[in-house]
Amino acid sequence: MTTVLYDGDCGFCRWSADKLRVWDRRRRLTFAPIQSGRGAELLDAVPVAQRLDSMHAVTSDGRVWSGGHAVRVILAELPGGSALASVAASFPGTTERIYRLVARHRNRLGRMLGQRACSVDPSAVKR
How buried is residue 119: exposed, middle or buried, by Cβ count under 10 Å (0-12/13-18/19+)? Predict the structure, then answer.
């Protein structure tokens, strides 16, 4: 099981995590806000000042993947995501740059999506 940790105070981050949750029909992912107790536990090795710099994926063996590196780990768990994960792994620099571009504009993207779309709680059990 891989846990996706996202910024719980960011509407775009919540919306994105919720889209991943819906895509995850095989239930291989769990979700938690970085700011939660579970987030603090899983990110113990990550300095507190760096935890909100990006999303994170924590694999069952305790390895922490952040930012663009987390993208390939998450995609690999999703139905049909293995090809996209391979592309992300083959071009890690590009994946990281795209991730950072989206992350820099997440507030603007959240405003574009609107309050209703961004008020989801992907960590809530909805299965």
Answer: exposed
Q: Which pTM does this prediction carry?
A: 0.91
In this structure, what token pair is assigned to residue 63? 């390895």
What's the CA gap between 109 and 19, in Å, rounded?
15
Q: What are phi and psi of 10, to 5 degrees?
A: -110, 115
Written in H, E and C, the secondary structure of 34-63 is CCCHHHHHHCCCCCHHHHHHCCEEECCCCC
pLDDT digits (tens, 9 = 90+) for 106-120: 999 999 999 888 999
Give 16's Cβ-side CA count (13 Å radius): 24
Phi/psi of residue 79, nearest 5 degrees: -60, 125
CA distance from start to end of the chain: 16
